[in-house]
Amino acid sequence: MVRRSVALLVVMFVVSAQWTLSQSKTAVQGGGALRFMDQIEEYKKQDSIAPPIKGSILFIGSSIFRQWNMLKEQMAPLPVFNRAFGGSRTAEILLHLNELVFPHAPRVIVYYCGSNDVNGDVPTIEIAGNFFAFVDSVHRRLPGTKIAYVSVNRAPQKKNRWGVVDSINMLVRTFCERSPAITYMDVNPSLFDAAGTPRYDLYKDDRLHFKDEAYVGFTGIIKPILTKLWNTVEPRVTSPR
Questions:
Q1: What are the tens digits of pLDDT across the range 126-142?
Q2: Is 241 a member of any domain?
Q3: Positive/negative CA dihedral, 225, 226, 231, 234
Q4: Total domain count, the chain
Q5: DSSP H helical ranges for 29-106
């Protein structure tokens, strides 16, 4: 019964993905878009000087990805580049698709966002729906692109909201299971010990963001899956734009 209810929610959001996208844009255009412009402009400047190779692997999302200092080295030899911007919510990722996603025509996208939505009391349905809208928008413009969703972290900082986190991840996982173009990656096991206690040694003082050691665990989970995805997609462009 639970899985049937989840499936119905997934169908509802797939059908309404374009509505969700337009609503999300409207919600942040009142000023939310401007608070990230420094980061967005910095990425655009980088792209003008040394653009990433089109058709490679894009990491996008919030500060959990933005602070992944050794991403390129830990994912090597996979051709990855990072366009995450700190503090972002799922609606704001949607707003910046034209600047951060579509120009690069990535063959694979790795997505992490939702932590800031949870802390901001954004409804679970809206958080999941914004990811569904992201998938819909990407596949309309880049139909061959694979998308990998990294689970929202059960960070100690939001322990009283772990139920919300679990609900988001359940909705998205069910959605991913119904499409060969979308993959769910659960990194939460790497953040707990055998007794189910959070590994506080992996977190910075805010108990939300990570020390470099946490990304070693992320690499062990994400890289094998990403390598398999990379080997299943058709190449697009092999030289910079």
A1: 999 999 999 999 999 99
A2: no
A3: positive
A4: 1
A5: 37-49, 63-66, 71-75, 90-95, 97-100
**Full domain range(s) for residue 164:** 2-230
d(Cα 39, Cα 187) in Å, to the nearest integer? Answer: 26
Q: How far is Cα 55 from Cα 137, in angstroms, rounded to an integer?
A: 17
Question: CA 174, 184, 94, 68 torsion: positive or negative?
Answer: positive
- C-alpha 206, offset from chain centre: 21
Q: How far apart (Å, rounded) are the C-alpha atoms in residues 197 and 215?
A: 18
Does the structure show a pLDDT above 60 at 28? no
Whether residue 77 has a cis bond before it, omega within 30° of 0 = yes
More confident residue, 208 or 241: 208
Residue 170 in contact with residue 6, Cβ under 8 Å? yes
For residues 182 and 135, is the Cβ–Cβ distance under 8 A? yes
In a domain, 222, yes or no: yes
Asked whether residue 236 is assigned to any structural domain, the reply reads no
Supply the CATH number for residue 56's domain.
3.40.50.1110
Number of separate helices (H) and strands (E) present in the chain: 11, 5
Q: φ and ψ at 110, to 5 degrees?
A: -110, 125
Say what angle helices 17-28 and 124-141 make with each other, to 10 degrees.
110
| Residue 84: DSSP 8-state | -
Both structure tokens of 112? 């992490």
Q: Which of 90, 121, 95, 87 is nearest to 22 (CA)?
A: 95
- Coil, strand, or helix at residue 215? helix
Q: Are 154 and 165 in contact (CB under 8 A)?
A: yes
**How many residues are recorded in the chain?**
241
Q: Is residue 104 part of a domain?
A: yes
